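Why do we care about 3D structure at all? Because function follows from shape, and shape follows, mostly, from sequence. That is the central idea of this module. The next example makes it concrete: a single protein chain, its amino acid sequence, and then its structure expressed as tokens.
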Amino acid sequence: SENRLKWQAMDPVYDKINLGDKEYDFVAGKQNFIDQLSEYFPAEREMIEDYVALISRVSTLTPKFFAAQAMPKWMGRAYNAVRPALMPKEFFQSTREVLEGMTQNQELISVLTGQWGDHGQVPAKASFVMHALIAKHYLAGGAYPVGGASAISRSIIPSIQKSGGEVFTYAEVKELLVKDNKAYGVKMANGDEIYADKVVSNTGFMNSVTKLLPEVSRIQHKVDKMLPKVERSSAHLCLYAGFKGTAADLGLTSSNLWIYPNGDHEGNLAAYEGKDPMDPETEFPLLYVSFPSTKDPEWDERYPNKSTVEIVTLSDMKWFENWEGSTWQQRGGDYESYKQKICDKLLKRLYERLPQLEAALDYCELSTPLSTQFYQHNDRGEIYGLNHYVERFKQPFLHPETPVKNFYMTGSDVMTAGVGGALMAGLMTSFCMVGPMQAKQINKLLKTHQAEA
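And the structure:
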């Protein structure tokens, strides 16, 4: 963004992990994090120190773990074949497997994995690499883009345009143009064709290979054999709520809330899957509650005497199959009624934690997996693309270089979920596209921008 994008630090307590009626603060700063958790678990201080050291080490070694993504595909395959001998064993284990090797205190493990919603898989299934990257990332605290999340794209677009590029919205790509197994552009949904020497897809692996690739290419490269080797991440619900009053009036901070029925993350999810969300006995396995308006220092100037809250939880496309194929914002009264019931249930949980908000509610709107499907074309409304389990990181086809020449992938499925993961994927894809001989140009550019920052 050439320094146009500014960030505002969140409160020192960036996350609060709620297990039933117990609450645990995650405090910014390695030593602060260790000291605070050690107050909750004094007998486990040594383990907590070892844990922080481990996630720091894993984070430092992660570029080495993903080095194959920056190489030509044939070279990457060779590198990954010897990678287990180069990396610590934790890179090839689940989160629960690693943590249970460090402590038998299940409550502590539940607290340490209290951010699992940030990647969407419970500790027994999620790769420890994914857990470590998120946990280490937040040790320094959280930050929010000044001007809101849309400031990220607004601040980057001028750099794209200055370099001769252009950005379009509501411009759907229908298909990759391929001849003799070489990509030469894209065909738009309106029939227009745009030609290019190289094409990069940031739409995720599933969309790239099942929608963009022409049928002849899908057959040629045996896409149907790739699909069973990966799995889509969970769908989600997100409640957007507006309240009358400032953050000070309503007693809000910028700390995120992770609310769980108890510490049994796997059991809570199992009890939720396949159930009717409207059943009073159905407990949400997690609620992530965020306060965007409190994080943005420019908010009160733009929207005085207003505050916003977002609540995210897991969902299932099966709940909304009756309305699949319907038009966004025209899905009918029964759909709106169904959404309202879910809204009410989510708001009830919010008011249990923050009762002062109930009288101040001004507006609320629920996004469902159909919303994600509309905006991202993710067929099952998945929030994070592909799941982040151990075997996922062994799949050779999750690489920037695709079997179709001049067609590349980037984004979270090439690396990991999250802003940082997608950003690093862009870097890896760039390295892969220019080749080892020209990679030094990218390194030079990176060093220049780091010096300017």
